[in-house]
Amino acid sequence: MILRSRHLLGLEDITAGEISLILDTAESFREILDRPIKKVPTLRGITVLNLFYEPSTRTRISFELAEKRLSADTISFSTSVSSVKKGESLKDTVRNIEAMKIDMVVVRHSSPGVPYFLTNCVESNIINAGDGAHEHPTQALLDMFTIRRKYGKLDGLRVVLVGDVKHSRVVRSNIWGLKTMGASVAVCGPSTLLPYEVERFGVDVYTDLDEAIDGADVVNIMRIQLERQQAGLFPSQREYTNLFGMTKERLKRLKRNYTIMHPGPMNRGVEITPEVADSKSSVILDQVTNGQAIRMAVLYLLSGKKEKEKEEDDE
Q: What are the start and end residues of each CATH 3.40.50.1370 domain in the chain?
């Protein structure tokens, strides 16, 4: 099996078979990360552009490491030292860079739909590293990969996504991916941080955290975007922590073999307390490590190397 599209723009329209292919491929690349020499020649000759119009730590470094460990040539783009400061458009920027013979573009942008827009501008493969409040597919894939490594499955698990659901692209991608793979998904947060008609996503909706996490297998905690607090979306950080913070006391409501997740960056003491973040049931650092394996898998599958290897085996 191969991916139907040359691009990874989101998980809303991806099939269960394609998600399984990515997760299974990531398993083989995850083994590479435990080797003394964490590098293979898989993407030698491929040039990847990391086009980040938004600040990023984990996602950007994860992609760069994934590319380097596959032996791809990488270019990292920064708007602060580019012609964007001179007024150059996104379209002209990426077309000029592609003229230097790049093969793949990893893009993060504050505007939803930018990855799709780029598919109509250039011939390169496009990978969405986060577009506004729309989707963040590789984050959801690494979340699912981490869950599957622990439980051996996704089907039948109950996963609760807690926090700023309204503005979170991670939540949206997780909802699409987890539901496609047969998991039961619930979202929980203050009513002001829930999207209008959120029920249309086919998830259970809660504004009471204690009720939401009762019997959950996995709780994935989303960052509270403190820069939005001045908009009055919740009264104070202290009240938010009291009502929606994941604390040690609340863990008692979870199943025995529960899992705590957070895509980062964390606001310790706000949406999650330190003892929960650092507990044995937390897989937050595993998520970071697994992110490299997922991104290696996505780069490999979209590069066309898999199809070429299959053709060679068939000859």
A: 16-136+289-307, 137-283
Q: Answer yes or no: pTM beyond 0.90.
A: yes
Q: In the chain, where do the E strands start and end?
A: 47-52, 73-78, 104-109, 125-131, 158-162, 184-188, 204-206, 218-221, 259-261
Compute and round to an integer the Cα radius of gyration of the chain: 20
Residue 227 pLDDT more than 70? no
Within 13 Å of residue 153, how many CA atoms lie on the same side as its CB?
Answer: 8
CATH architecture of 16-136+289-307: 3-Layer(aba) Sandwich (3.40)
Dmax (CA) for the chain in angstroms is 66
- According to CATH, the topology of domain 137-283 is Rossmann fold (3.40.50)
DSSP-derived 3-state class of residue 180: helix
The SS3 of residue 3 is coil
What is the layout of strands, in order, in the sheet containing 158-162?
204-206, 184-188, 158-162, 218-221, 259-261
Q: Yes or no: say if 270 and 241 are a contact pair by the CB < 8 Å rule.
A: yes
| DSSP state at residue 59 | H
Q: In this predicted structure, which of 140-154, 233-247, 282-296, 300-314 has the lowest mean pLDDT?
A: 300-314
What count of other Cβ atoms lies within 10 Å of the Cβ of residue 34? 8
Residue among 301, 314, 302, 293 nearest 28 (CA): 293
pLDDT of residue 88: 78
Question: What strand order describes the sheet that includes 125-131?
Answer: 73-78, 47-52, 104-109, 125-131
Two tokens at 106?
Answer: 């990893």
Q: How far apart are CA 188 and CA 160, in angstroms?
A: 7
Q: Which two tokens stand for residue 209?
A: 């955290």
**Cβ(260)–Cβ(221) under 8 Å?**
yes
Burial, 253: exposed, middle or buried (Cβ in 10 Å; 0-12, 13-18, 19+)?
Answer: middle
